[in-house]
Structure formats: structure tokens, C-alpha cells
């Protein structure tokens, strides 16, 4: 998958009671997901938040590591964080990718919960050409709100193990899905 | 692999200049790796540090989430952090596992760098029986020191993507290796 993008969504997501909320930025999500994205050849990572102070914080982190002291301290981190783009809405990220790619992007939701009609990463690769732009969408907090999941074109199977425990961090989930898509 | 354990090593690891150091605890490593371990049916997660203040901090985090307020706030986190055990040395972890399993444990190093004679997660599964106790060893900071890698019975292939970038977080690397071992 040569034109893969990631969206890390902070709104609309849900809390522990499955109520829609906007979540706060967790800066280590940006680092871990950008490093995994860089490893697996992802084209861009969208941090999506409607909150101006959170968008400012995200841009400050990016600036530190791509232009500031952090960029000289750790060039590997610089390379990774250069992949990150900040937008206010999911739709804004989709529009930006479609402009960059001169065509539609397939949006693919992820969730730890079972939903009908999910597909495997392998099936996603098989059904889409290698060049098809795809946006893999991850929720922070307790996951993407159903309204955003339903807005996406497809949804990936949840990551499961031998038991029923399904509480991976979004950092772990993004890393595993990327590995399955790129190496699986 | 029904008897898999994880070691998260803080000494001996290396810094950016490949010099042996002892690293500081990163508490989110404990959370992310314990959550992945719980998801994939790992038997125990060893946090290994020779520094008393760091061991105390690790135990304080575990206590908060398994016995304190955190355990009532988030029972899923409780389940995960109950997997964590703290030891001062790698040898101490190995001894504890061997006592628990009544027999030897196969130690398997991980590294982002290329080494001779590494094997794939698939080959590890094939060559070891499903019941064989295995300890998967991860380094913090810039990775395990060679002396510890060489002390292990085997070493897994590094996780790679289409390019040469090899700077995953230990949280991402542990998640991907577990997925490959349990679902690959």
C-alpha cells in the first residue's frame, strides 16, 4: 500500500460510558505513531482536533522536533514527526489527501469492538490496488464514535488475542495494523 | 505459545552512542506493554532495573493500578498491570520463570539492528513447542546491549518496513512481535 495515510482522531470519540466526547492530545501518541508510520512508509499522519489549544500544542511539539532543538538532538525523531499534519476535522484531512492525490481516498475505520462487515488487513490489501490512497482512522480515548465509523468506507477487523480482553493502546493498535498491512 | 513472558530491560542497554547505560523507567511502557501482553495471553511481564528508586517507582505504579484508586477507576488496566513483576536483574527474572515453570526457559532477544543468525517469529513458533516457556526480551533507550543479546538463546529478526528507518518505540515493537507470535 503505497499511498497510506493515518488519522488520529480526538473528536468524535467516546468515553468509558460510550458517550461522544472530544479528547485531549497525548503527545506520545504523536511520537509512537509517527515512528511506526515512518518505519512502514506511510505518507502522512493527521492529528485531528477541533480544539484550538490542542492544535497549538500539537504544532508546538512538531515544531520542537522538526525545526527546534529536538531536530538537532534526534534527527530520527525529526524524520518521523515531519509526517504529522494537524487539521480541525476529519473532513479536512480527507480533503487535503484528495487534493494531494488528485482523486478519492478510501477511508478505513478501526475499532476494538466487534462491528458487522469488518474486513481483514489482508482483504483490504487484496481489494484495493497498491496505489489506491487509503486513510486508516484511529480513535483516541475509548475509540471512534459510531457516527465516524459509519462515515468511513470500510472497517478493519478488531485486533484480538486468545481471550476477550480488547484494551490495546492506540499506539499499539496502530503499530500492529501497519505491520499487518505492510508485512502481513 | 502458551507460556510466553516478556522482559523490559533497563540495564544493560545502550545510549545513542552505543555505550552501555542503565535507563530510567518510562511508566507508559509498563501500561502499553502490559495491555498488549494481556491481549495476547502473555503469562508475565518483567520490568528489570537494578536501581532501587526506579524499582520503587515501578511498584508504586503497579500498586496504584492494581490495589489503589486506579484499580477501581479502570478494572481493565488493573487486569493488565497485574501481569507486571519487578526484578533487579535479567538473571533474577529467568530464575523466577524457571521456578514457576519447573524447567528451563528459552530466552529470545529483540533488536532493531541487524545481527547474524536471527530467526523469524514464525520460525520461533515452529521450532519451539506451544508449551515451551519463552522469555521475549526488549531493551529500553537505544536497545539491548550486545552482552545481553549474546547471553540469550536466540534473537528475533528486526521489524522492518520498505525503507531503512528502524526507530520504533519499544511499545510498538513489543506489540508487533506479540501479534506476529500469536496471530502470525
Structure overview:
Two copies of one chain form a homodimer. Chain A is of the alpha/beta class. In chain A, 43% of the residues lie in helices and 17% in strands. The first copy, chain A, contains eight helices and eight strands. In chain A, the strands form two sheets. In chain A, strands 5-4-1-7-6-8 form a six-stranded parallel β-sheet, with helices on both faces. In chain A, a hairpin with a 5-residue loop joins β2 (13-14) and β3 (20-21). In chain A, α1 (27-39) crosses α4 (75-81). The longest helix of chain A has 15 residues, at 52-66. The radius of gyration of chain A is 16 Å and the shape is globular.
Helix and strand sequence of chain A: EEEHEHHHEHEHEHEH
Total of helices of chain A: 8
Residue fraction in strands of chain A? 15-25%
Low-confidence stretches of chain A: none
DSSP helix fraction of chain A: 40-55%
| Broad structural category of chain A | alpha/beta
Distance between the termini of chain A: 12 Å
Question: What is the strand arrangement across the widest sheet of chain A?
Answer: 5-4-1-7-6-8
- How many strands, which pairing sense, and closed or not: the largest β-sheet of chain A? 6 strands, parallel
Can you give the mean pLDDT of chain A?
97
Q: Assign an overall shape of chain A.
A: globular
* Beta-strand segment tally of chain A: 8
Biggest interface, residues from each chain: A-B, 35 and 35 residues
> From the structure provided, what is the oligomeric state, counting identical versus distinct chains?
homodimer
Q: Round the Cα radius of gyration of chain A to an integer and report it.
A: 16 Å
Amino acid at each position: 500500500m503505497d499511498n497510506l495515510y493515518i488519522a488520529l482522531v480526538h473528536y468524535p470519540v467516546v468515553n468509558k460510558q460510550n458517550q461522544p466526547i472530544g479528547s485531549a492530545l497525548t503527545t506520545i501518541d504523536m511520537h509512537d505513531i509517527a515512528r511506526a508510520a515512518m518505519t512502514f512508509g506511510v505518507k502522512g499522519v493527521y492529528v485531528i482536533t477541533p480544539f484550538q489549544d490542542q492544535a497549538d500544542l500539537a504544532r508546538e511539539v512538531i515544531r520542537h522536533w522538526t525545526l527546534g532543538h529536538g531536530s538537532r538532538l534526534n534527527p530520527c525523531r525529526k524524520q518521523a514527526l515531519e509526517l504529522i499534519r494537524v487539521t480541525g476535522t476529519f473532513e479536512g484531512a480527507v480533503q487535503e489527501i484528495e487534493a494531494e492525490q488528485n482523486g478519492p481516498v478510501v477511508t478505513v475505520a478501526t475499532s476494538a469492538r466487534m462491528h458487522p462487515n469488518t474486513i481483514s488487513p489482508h482483504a483490504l490489501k487484496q481489494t484495493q490496488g497498491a496505489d489506491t490512497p487509503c486513510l486508516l482512522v484511529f480513535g483516541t480515548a475509548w475509540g471512534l464514535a459510531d457516527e465516524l465509523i459509519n462515515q468511513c468506507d470500510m472497517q478493519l477487523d478488531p485486533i484480538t488475542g486468545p481471550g476477550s480482553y480488547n484494551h490495546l493502546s492506540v499506539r499499539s493498535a496502530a503499530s500492529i495494523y501497519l505491520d499487518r498491512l505492510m508485512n502481513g
